[in-house]
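This section describes the prediction task in plain terms. A model, or a person checking by hand, is given the sequence of a single protein chain and must write out its three-dimensional structure as a string of tokens. No templates, partner chains or ligands are provided. The sample shown here is typical of the held-out split.
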Amino acid sequence: QVQLVESGGGLVQPGGSLRLSCVTSGFTLDYYAIAWFRQAPGKEREGVSYINNRDGTTHYADSVKGRFTISRDNAKNTVYLQMNRLKPEDTAVYYCATDPRGERFVIAAMHQVDGYKYLENWGQGTLVTVSS
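The expected answer:
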């Protein structure tokens, strides 16, 4: 059974940092692209970043580029999202997700409006609140 469990969220002041973790089980992480999404109150879920399984290629939404870093440790079955210089507009529930059908589904979900609705596997989310 595919499972993804996020952790690491919390309350942080503007300019601060957090590291989110996505621990996976039920599948071999080496073969899967993983994405992070977020959903702010009253807003649609949006893609934040993804990392592929072949060569570690990464992609970031413009809103987080230069501040967030995604990485993976296949030996620990874990994907991380390091978030620096956090802003109030980063406040959201953060989810990790994947799809057994392959990387192209993860990429499509990142770039297409409502594409996230078609990804098969999601974690329960972790809340990040950026506020003074």
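For orientation: DSSP finds one helix and eleven strands in the chain.
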